Amino acid sequence: MRYAKWTQIGERPKFKYKKDELRFDATVLDYQDYLTKYMGKLPPDLSMYIRSRSFHFLETFIENPQSHLEGTAMPRTGVTAESAEKVLEYLDHVGDPSRAERTSVGIKVMIYLLIFAVFAYLWKKQVWKELH
Prior knowledge:
The chain is mostly helical.
């Protein structure tokens, strides 16, 4: 998952030395090569699919990946409805981790623009009152 600190072998730790980070990256690449040999190709990054495709697409994709992406490297998962809901919530959060921050900033910007528009309108009325 691109925006979460996860790889195929687990969570990406923080490294003190660059050589340890390179060693971890090499281990991840070795594991990805192993997965590619075993499954034919790497599984897709589902955290991006929730942004590029619909929520419904991922719901049905989790149940039967082969129906949407022919030859995908993901097997049928057979998860329960409750587990699928948790997976979808997690993927939604991981696919766009800054959504909450963007939404709050957007609301503040809209309020600022509304207040600015009111002041601009009042200023315009004041200026044009003398000219008419």
